[in-house]
Amino acid sequence: MAISKKAGAKKPGAASKPPPSKSGGAPSKGGVAKADWREGFKKAQAGVSDMTLLSKVTNEAINENLQKRFQNAEIYTYIGNVLISVNPFRDLGIYTEDILQSYRGKNRLEMTPHVFAIAEGAYYNMNAYKENQCVIISGESGAGKTEAAKRIMQYIAAVSGGSNSGIQDVKDMVLATNPLLESFGCAKTLRNNNSSRHGKYLEIMFNSHGEPIGANITNYLLEKNRVVQQIRDERNFHIFYQFTKAASASHRENYGIQGPEAYAYTANSQCLDVNGIDDHADFKETISAMNTIGLTADEQDNIFRMIAAILWIGNVQYVENQEGNAEISDPGVPDFVAYLLEVDSGNVTKALTQRIMETQRGGRRGSVYEVPLNPTQAAAARDALAKAIYNNMFDWIVDRINQSMNPREQSANVIGVLDIYGFEIFDNNSFEQLCINYVNEKLQQIFIELTLKKEQEEYAYEQIQWTPIKYFNNKIVCNLIEEKRPPGIFSALNDA
To answer: Does the record's keyword annotation contain Lipoprotein (predicted)?
Structure first.
């Protein structure tokens, strides 16, 4: 995000502070007052708030400065107009209403580093210069990106004004998207109890008075595979545990809902409960968010019906018959799945045990064959069906949210907040990790282009004397993945 253009501005009525009195002691032999020496010692112990002020910029100096600040409960540090955040994994009490208001209308340099200062800068620049703003949040998995995005939204909702009920409704809906999409798009991983398993770009739309009038969410890369498989001590998406633990009596009766231990898709990773996660309370918050967004009772019921169908699909088990083909061991399970999906039971059984092959002759449609699957193939087809249902449901929820938040008037400007996966390196990495890390490489490439490459090209063009900054341009990494000639990884996969 660009540096706030309010730098140096004083608040109305603010008087400049007089220089500190030195009556507390005579200057030392070096001519430095004791108070100044103590202040310098304090800074040395606590670290600097902006690392452009470091006397020596090295990896060791940066890490040492971040460590000093973290040990003093200072999790935010600037590098120029970039904010670095170190996840404390605990509540430091730094997001209260009083602290939020203290950043309102303040220049970034007037206050200690904070995500609220970034949000204030974006909101101020949008209003003052009528320019669209974007905050890009990047980092490793578990770094606290989703929490930072939530705090930016919290700040903008608090300071963006608007007295009529329509403006307040938009603010409420924007904030309600957090618990709703966290329930359906976040999960407990080894590194993070609330890890985003999808990317999200939120655009908040404002009128000419700086009041929010609507919003739009773009969804990226939902980790569909998590629906059917998790490694030990990780969990499926939060909503599965919320629903199986806190479902209403009618849902339990109509949809056959039991505890999470009763379903393969929630029990196989052996992680039903997590310290710090209250699935019952979170389910109430999810329902409240649905109501705030404007989902009707029927729409909510259909969502939970699909959740139940996915859980029961996961309980379909196979045996091998004499021909080596898959047979469903308990026919009652696909019958119940058909009831939940409101389709014919025979069609469900076919979808779970057969695949359709179609021949073509001279570009014309030929014969259609139903080919039986073996148990391994059938299990893959079962899981593919569950993933497709969940993915389509998630996309529908995002579309429904956008429908509710669609602006009723022409927007003047927008503030975008990008919250996407961080780099992921596991013992076993899949195609999803390749896509996730590719996205992060592209973000890094944009950052390098804007902050290093173009800036130095501008210096050279204007013949400004400076010490060139050496950096690794990751364009070669991106080319390795995305190039078509010579073929990169994606092209090679397409040809395989």
So the answer is: no
The whole-angstrom separation of Cα 247 and Cα 250 is 8
The C-alpha angle 443, 103, 178, rounded to 5 degrees, equals: 50
- Give dist(CA 318, CA 227) in Å, integer: 19
Complete DSSP assignment for 353-377? HEEEEEEEETTEEEEEEEEEPPHHH
Give the predicted TM-score (pTM) of the model.
0.86
The answer to the question of whether 143 is labelled as a binding residue is yes
8 Å CB contact between 248 and 286: no
> CB–CB of 245/279 below 8 Å?
yes
Residue type at 165? S
Look at residue 25 in the predicted model and tell me its pLDDT: 44
* Residues 327-339: tens digit of each pLDDT: 999 999 999 999 9
Task: Output the six-digit token pair for 472.
Answer: 């690794």
Give backbone dihedrals phi and psi of 469, rounded to 5 degrees, phi first: -95, 120
Listed in sequence order, the residues at least 6 apart from 296 whose beta carbon sits closer than 8 Å to its beta carbon are: none
Distance of CA 29 to the CA centre of its chain: 55
SS3 content of the chain, % helix, strand, coil (to 5): 50, 15, 40
Catalytic site residues? 141-142, 146, 192, 195-196, 422, 424
Question: Which has the higher per-residue pLDDT, 14 or 162?
Answer: 162
Q: Assess contact for 77 and 110: CB atoms under 8 A.
A: no
């501008």: which residue's tokens?
A: 458
Residues 120/103, Cβ–Cβ less than 8 Å: yes
**Interatomic CA distance for residues 299 and 397, integer angstroms:** 10
CATH of domain 431-496: 1.20.58.530
- Type and span of the H or E element at 326: strand 326-328
Rounded Cα distance between 138 and 478, Å, is 17
Rg over CA atoms, the chain? 28
